[in-house]
Amino acid sequence: MVEKGQIPAVVIFAPTACGKTALVQNLFGQGSLSCFKGAGEIVSADSQAVYRYMDIGTAKPTANEMASLPHHLVDVVEPDIQFGVGEFLEEADKACAEIHARGKLPVIVGGTGFYIRAFLLGLPPTPISNPVMRKKIKERLAKEGNAPLYHELKQIDPEYAKKIDMHDGYRICRALEVYYSSGKTLSSYMIPVQERKEYSFCTIILQRDRKELYERIDRRVISMFESGLRDEVEKLKQMGYGKDSPGMKAIGYREFFDGESQTDEDLIGRIQHNSHRYAKKQYTYMNGISGIQINADDISGVEKAIRGFCSQEHFPAGW
Q1: For residues 84 and 78, what is the distance between their CA atoms, to the nearest angstrom?
Q2: Which residues contact 249 (CB under 8 A, 6 or more apart)?
Q3: pLDDT tens for residues 94-115?
Q4: Could you identify which of 28, 63, 252, 315 might form a hypothetical disulfide with 40, taking C-beta atoms 3.0 to 4.6 angstroms apart as the criterion?
Q5: How far is CA 23 from CA 33, 95, 266, 314, in A?
Q6: What CA–CA distance (Å, rounded) separates 44 from 152?
Q7: pLDDT digits over 209-248, tens only?
Q8: Residue 318: its pLDDT value, please?
Q9: Residue 102 burial (C-beta neighbours within 10 Å; 0-12, 13-18, 19+)
C-alpha cells in the first residue's frame, strides 16, 4: 500500500537492445491497443539519452514516439557537460513529483543500472570533494591516459573498478580522489539497502536470453550505421565535441576516436563487442535489488504486474 506522501512509481530495467522502448509504447503510448493509454509518463534512466544531438548512437525514442508518450530527461544537456548520477537523481525526483501532481504514473525506464539503483535506494554518503587532489588526478589522467589509472583503481578498490568502464575517466578520477583524500575506498562507504521512503515502487527487471540479446545488439548496431551514425558523429565533431566530451565517451561514439581511417566494418565489430560487454555489466548494478523478473516479450506479464501494483488504490479503478 502507498503510504501518505509517497509517490507510486513503476521502474522498468533492462539492458541495451532488450526492447524497452517498444514495450513502454505498447503499455502507455497512444496506440489503440495500448494497455494504459495516456496514464503514464516516462522518466528516462539512460545516461546517454540526456545528451542533445546524439540520437542514432543512443537509440533514443523517435520524435513520433515521444509525441505519443511524454518523455523526461531526454535531450537535456550538451555533450560536453558532465551529467552524473547526482544530477540524474535530482532531475528524476523533480520529474516524478510533477508527473504525480498531474495525476499520472511516473514510469522510470532505462538500462543504466547505476541510475536505476540510485533511484530505488538513494546515494551513499561520500566525502567532501578535494579540489586540489582532483586537479592532480585529472592532470595525471591527461598525461598517462585512462588505462594506468584504471589499473591503479583495480588494485585499490577492485569492487568499484569492476562496476565502471576503463573509459569512464570521470568516475575513475572520483574514486582515486576519494581514496587519496580519505584513505577509504569509494566502495567502502555504506550503500543504502532499503528502498527510499518517498516512493512506493513496482520494480520490473526484463530478462532475455543472452544469445538472443547479443543478436539483437548486433542487428541494432548495423541499423545505426545504415541510419547514418558515421554522419552523426562527424557532425558532432564539427560542432566542437571531441573524445574528451562526456557524451563522446559513450559506446557507439568513442570508437570513432580510437584511430584514423576506420572502416564501417571495423567500427561495427568493435561497437558490437563493447555493447555485449556493457549489456553483461548492466545487470551487475542490479545485484541485490528485489524486483519482478519477467521475459522482455511477455507484455501481458508486465501489464499484470503493473495492474496489480496500481490496484492497491494507487490510481483510478478504470484502469
Answers
A1: 13
A2: 167, 168, 169, 243
A3: 999 999 999 999 999 999 998 9
A4: 28
A5: 12, 21, 32, 22
A6: 33
A7: 999 999 999 999 999 999 999 999 999 999 999 999 999 9
A8: 45
A9: exposed
